[in-house]
Amino acid sequence: MTSPRSERRAARAARRADADGSGPTLGDTPRLRNPGAAGAFALFGEVLLVGLLVSLVSLPVLTLPAALAAGVRHLRRYIAADDSRVRFFWQDVRAALLPGLVVGLAAAVATVVLLIDIDLARSGFLPGGPVVGAIGWVGLAAVAVSLLFAASLWSPDLGWRGAIRAIPEAVRGDIAGAFYLLAAAGFVVVVTWMLPPLFVAGIGCAVLAVVSIPSRPRRR
């Protein structure tokens, strides 16, 4: 399996050969697997745009699942060089919003409960505090990864219920990918803690991770 870097290198070589007449014309050049990602600077700009859109939609917090799902679908369209006008992002937001509020509420409640458990474990009031604290951190990681997986799997046809039901199979099929998503979620938390406005860039990078991790080259 060729890597995206090899494909881009081959595409650049083909353009040079076409320009100097020593090789096939561009019409004979194989199509890149992710043609929308060929321009690194343009892709970076689109990631920032997605981060801004997701941040705006997720301001009420409970709308974060719908914002992530719409952002993932938008960036997939852009990377595939499909029609990625912003109006399609808003169409996905409208489709995902109301059912996604239930998912957002469940994630928010679970997060608050786990944070309270971690705080109590640190206070020393609970017996077995270190164990309770560890369980709390594992729970937070599970919530974050599940939310990113659900956003990756959601579509208007599948819906949130189908996306959530598909999470266990998706995790079993790509355990390493689940850890990569956990790292992406941790990155968002760290950069936001350092400087809150960096949440826009961080969440955009997390959406890019959700899109790119499943399609990465893997060893067989």
UniProtKB/TrEMBL annotation:
Residues 1-31 are annotated as: Disordered. Residues 1-19 have a biased composition (Basic and acidic residues). The chain crosses the membrane at residues 47-72, 93-116, 131-154, 175-193, 199-215. It comes from the Bacteria. Signal peptide: none annotated. Keywords: Membrane, Transmembrane, Transmembrane helix. This is DUF624 domain-containing protein.
